[in-house]
Backbone:
């Protein structure tokens, strides 16, 4: 850093990159040296002097102090950032997939090279969450972190409920508005939420998280019938990332991503459209909730720029980053299999419309240690089958899966199982 | 700081001080050297080795690195902290009154002496808000900060609405539960909220704020009739601290504390009991909201301990605090008089039950440039006067005050005026 001006290179000039360039224009202590893009000839909203299509040019440029990566994806970002770190550059990244899968390797390398990696924008867009957990809240022991972490799926679920339209129709609308990508898998199958809850779990519980052990279920199987039944029973359906200790002070962690029936009177049930929210429960702080825009050019740029300015402010005084900014790499988390966790369940069943069928359902549940809170026949379909909705009390996931098999052996089709909190 | 152990002195061992001592017991890099209390002989929940009734003993102890002030009030805290700062001690304080009234003097002195003053606990208890504004969100230009900043008054208003009890009865309940003090003036007259919105305005708008220019109104005049009328019209009543630019990019600030009718569908209307919430609007981040416990032993201790650990972490590496942690003292804010601001208003009127009275009200409003959204007669009282409720469109405060005088000259008593957002 020369003359108190921080020189940065930006990798990626999509929505977020463009927002970062615009926001930085009002800070004269930050100079954008080079921006790496995929296609040099694409017409762009903003003019950049030095464009390159080789991100390694930035990683190897001795003039650059900080590499800002807003391209996304593992390749080539992993290798680019590793090269930059070895060249003693600090990193600001919004790349949740990269951090969730390779954070360990990246942070170890950063520690060896005495540089920092900041990533406020990787979780919940514009909402300050990584920073507060690592600073203001550092005196706490947390038992739970949970949230609506993906704007696309929350938008789709909100539209399905408010307009009574199918998942497919709402996905199309989201794609038209630019809320969902042409291939929506990453959002709608819960991968994006999984990366984010993995990153949050890491800083909340101080453990390495293995993404492959996180139970993950998306929203593609949610029907408007499920939503209507849930509404009638006083619930909304939200896709949540959840990470919690199995018991208070227990080292075993229960981390998962799936749709959840939340009580319509809870604050989380009021978070609609593309808004994100993160809830934390810890001691001594109690329960706190952070709500705001989870994606988009401007909100994400706010977090990326906040990280860049943090580095500028630190190294303008010491010419090196403080170790306190670095992430501790620590031991592996003990991640509990979802089969061993207890939940309440909403089950929608497609059963033959015959006398005694409710009795059969009740018996199968009883045999599998499942106490029922309610069992309601919601109507007869054209094919003379009945839609039956069951809500259970707290039950082991393993017992529910066993009951499912036994129900299906009796020609009672389990159309959907959704957990309730 | 010797052997990587930070020595602190604590001033005040009430609810918050006790929470801080308990929380610090799990951090072996922090040593509590001395605690200053008012009464040495009082029986206490926790045992402290070194107690003193002279806070200056702490301010002058060369062994102590950080003075933690959780006593409250201006005297003797101002002189104690000034002495500590001159002795090169860092400060962590939860004292909103002191910072709102004398922050300028304290921060200037801290800058001269190269020490830091942290105060996360002074606003919204356990909710991280000072830290995020000064770090993650520092790339933003804010237009507004607003919130429910006082748990006591929010508890009283919630009870009044939910149980239909008078202000006096709900205050008594709050006092019984320890939510309100024997002399509740500081909370119920809006002083506490005023100090907090002054502190927030300072860091959001980077200006010195003059508390004496903040319009302040408490909740003591709110009746259950006001709450019932508001509910019928689709509103809840909340005591808010509000600070906003008169227009976007305008340097003139509109800062005030008063009860507000908020739409029943807004998220802020759902914040009940002693919970606090802070809303920020800025660019590029958009709108974000922080919600959580605003007071109490544990939540406030979370913020105080977060600040202590921040100082420990910084000086363990550099043995001096970074200037970036310090607050910039800057120019005076231009604070607009509330008479020049425009608001919607709810007015409850006590009018003679005579033909033509609604016409008179309508005419007086029209003459004073007030457009009415609705005017409803709510019933006839025993003394043959009518309760009439008026909701106006956006109107200058000066015009409302003029209309009030003219209405009263016509024997139409203006029982309450509450602003609407």
Residues:
């Amino acid at each position: 850093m020369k003359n108190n001006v921080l020189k940065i290179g930006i990798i990626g000039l999509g929505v977020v990159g463009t927002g970062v360039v615009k926001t930085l224009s009002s800070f004269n202590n930050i100079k954008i040296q080079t921006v790496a893009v995929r296609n040099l000839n694409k017409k762009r909203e903003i003019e950049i002097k030095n464009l390159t299509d080789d991100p390694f040019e930035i990683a190897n440029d001795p003039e650059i102090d900080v590499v800002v990566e807003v391209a996304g994806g593992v390749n080539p970002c992993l290798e680019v950032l590793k090269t930059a770190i070895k060249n003693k550059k600090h990193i600001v990244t919004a790349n949740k997939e990269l951090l969730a899968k390779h954070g360990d390797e990246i942070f170890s390398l950063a520690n060896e090279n005495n540089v920092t990696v900041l990533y406020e924008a990787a979780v919940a867009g514009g909402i300050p969450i990584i920073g507060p957990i690592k600073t203001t809240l550092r005196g706490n022991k947390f038992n739970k972190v949970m949230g609506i972490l993906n704007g696309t799926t929350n938008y789709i679920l909100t539209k399905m409920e408010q307009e009574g339209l199918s998942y497919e129709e709402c996905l199309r609308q989201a794609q038209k508005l630019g809320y969902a990508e042409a291939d929506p898998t990453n959002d709608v199958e819960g991968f994006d939420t999984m990366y984010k809850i993995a990153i949050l779990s890491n800083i909340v519980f101080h453990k390495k998280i293995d993404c492959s052990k996180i139970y993950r279920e998306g929203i593609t199987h949610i029907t408007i019938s499920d939503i209507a039944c849930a509404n009638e029973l006083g619930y909304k359906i939200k896709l949540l990332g959840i990470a919690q200790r199995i018991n208070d002070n227990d080292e075993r962690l229960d981390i998962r991503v799936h749709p959840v029936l939340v009580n319509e009177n809870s604050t989380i049930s009021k978070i609609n459209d593309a808004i994100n929210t993160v809830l934390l429960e810890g001691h001594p702080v109690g329960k706190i909730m952070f709500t705001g825009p989870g994606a988009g050019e401007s909100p994400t740029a706010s977090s990326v720029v906040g990280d860049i300015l943090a580095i500028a402010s630190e190294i303008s005084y010491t010419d090196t980053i403080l170790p306190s900014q670095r992430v501790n790499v620590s031991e592996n988390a003990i991640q509990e299999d979802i089969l061993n966790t207890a939940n309440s369940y909403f089950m929608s069943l497609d059963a033959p419309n015959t006398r005694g069928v409710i009795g059969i359902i009740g018996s199968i549940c009883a045999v599998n240690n499942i106490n029922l809170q309610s069992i309601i026949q919601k109507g007869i379909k054209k094919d003379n089958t009945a839609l039956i909705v069951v809500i259970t009390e707290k039950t082991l996931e393993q017992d529910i899966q066993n009951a499912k098999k036994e129900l299906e052996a009796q020609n009672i089709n389990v159309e959907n199982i959704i957990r309730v909190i």
The CA atoms of residues 12 and 314 of chain A lie 25 Å apart. The mean pLDDT of chain A is 94.
